[in-house]
Amino acid sequence: MKFFLILLLSPRVVEQLWVKALTVFYVFIMIPQRKKIAVLHPRFVEMWGAIKMMIFLYQKLSKDNKVGFFTTLYSKNNFKKDLDILVMEISSKFKIISYFIIAYKIRDYDIVFAWNSPMHFVWVISKILFRAKFKLIWWNHHFPWYYEKKHNTFFVSLKKRFEKFSIDYIDLLVANSLYIKDSLLDIFGQSRQIKILHPVVSDIFIEYNRKKERQKRKITLLTYSRWVTWKNIWVIFKMFDFLKSKYDFNLIIWWEGKQLDKYIEKYSWYKNISFLWKLSQDDIFNYAIQSDIFLFPSLIDSFWMSILEMMFLSLPIVWFNFWWVWEIIKDWKNGFLCNSDLEFLQKTETLIKDTTLRKKMWEESLKIARSNFWENIFNKELEKIFEILN
Asked: What CATH number should be reported for the domain holding residue 363?
């Protein structure tokens, strides 16, 4: 009797039990069993978004199947030892040999998940030369930038031709967002069948409640990315110069890149700026839970996994206004979408000085993340993929 009374008085408990029940149902009924499944990725080095999803998929499928990662470059220090990593690491001069070795080894697998060029060409070698019969899924996490006209070099043209040839050997194209799906339809044809498999965030981000820790601290802004061209790092420093005399706040900048190197010497002497380098996932998590606002100035990222992680930590996001981000960022709800560099600075200032708005966005950010990017959603989408393959 007490148990049922607790359920009636605790909607949150009911929600958690229902989600867990759905998760168990989909995993038990829909996920294939006793299959050999291969996952292909060229660089298993850093814990990037695609790699995180590979590990998540591995943990889900390996309970009842034999799952192995195939890669040509692997960093043992950054990953758990219990992952089944099959490394074909050969001298860079002869790296193409490793692709043929992988193509041979996966020939008797049942299902292959492929990420990123050039690993998604391996399936063609396997199917043509070694007559492989596996079901092939090409999971796209990023917009294929090389299809833009400005990248139309000889080698890129050759790659695109081979890719359009190899697309006929694919059983299913999978995108991680609506934007990627629409982009692939434009490239490969509107008749192409494409399913969406949204990213899902680790339970550590879902379960952590940190709102009380934000009450009496200096405001902290966090940003991180691989700071290359079009990541727009200069906007962060322009924001800092714009606001440093008005407000007392901390700025944390993580990761590295040529674009960031230009500013380190000039700004490293400021006590309220922290430049961070190689960090573990636990370190990233610890810095994130000490932050209040996440700044993302990139002009080229379409669906960044870390944005979801920040949302699960209830961080409001300041980003630029592109239609491909509308799926995760709702303007004035869980963050700001900016139409200019000046607006990026102004909206960051708005969040710094408006505690009430910041708190509202914290709550909305977590709400949107939990509604769309939880494990039960992933299970339903994965179910549809396996239904097609069967």
From this structure: 3.40.50.2000
